[in-house]
Design a protein that fits this description.
Blueprint: E1 18-23, E2 26-31, E3 37-42, E4 45-50, E5 65-75, E6 91-95, E7 100-103, H1 108-111, E8 118-125, E9 139-144, E10 150-154
Antiparallel strand pairs: 1-2, 3-4, 5-6, 5-8, 6-7, 8-9, 9-10
Length: 163
């Protein structure tokens, strides 16, 4: 599915550049950077395409960062029967490298994010004295290259050992 933000004037969901080359009657794709979704001009028509976004693995040491892409932006809660977002419940964002961030607050910085945008995520803190296997409560700083905005959020609604 193509995001509503895509158009002939805004053909990609990020600011990455897509190179396409024709060879032997076939389209041979060469990418400088990979994008998640977009539109491509071919014979005067705009054709949608979707491909995996390549992400660096999530940072595992405090102070380390990685480039990744926005996979989803939504509310903190969704209706269990319909899957509809529950407005006013907070904000969530999932990155293509598997990191999920959440807030009880409505976060305008995240509401402006567009699926497929390139972001930089840094591990800010890891809680100490957690029960074995409970990895919740890591805090990350997320920088959006397009909006130039930064937000710091946890990866869970609760710290390790909590509810």
């Amino acid at each position: 599915m193509i995001e509503p933000a895509l158009s002939a004037d805004r053909p990609y969901t990020s600011h990455e550049i897509l190179y396409i080359q024709m060879a032997g009657g076939r389209i041979v794709k060469k990418f400088k950077h990979v994008v998640s979704t977009g539109l491509i001009a071919l014979s005067g028509s705009l054709i949608p395409f979707t491909m995996p976004a390549l992400s660096a693995p999530p940072p595992v040491q405090v102070g380390k960062c990685a480039d990744t892409f926005i996979k989803t932006v939504g509310t903190r809660l969704v209706d269990g029967s319909t899957g509809a977002p529950i407005e006013g419940s907070g904000t969530s964002v999932e990155l293509t490298n598997g990191i999920y961030l959440v807030s009880y607050d409505e976060v305008p910085t995240l509401k402006q994010a567009i699926v497929g945008e390139k972001v930089n995520v840094c591990l800010v803190s890891i809680p100490k004295n957690c029960p074995p296997g409970d990895n919740r409560g890591r805090t990350y700083r997320l920088f959006n290259y397009r909006t130039r905005q930064t937000v710091t959020l946890p990866d869970s609604q609760h710290m390790c050992g909590g509810a």
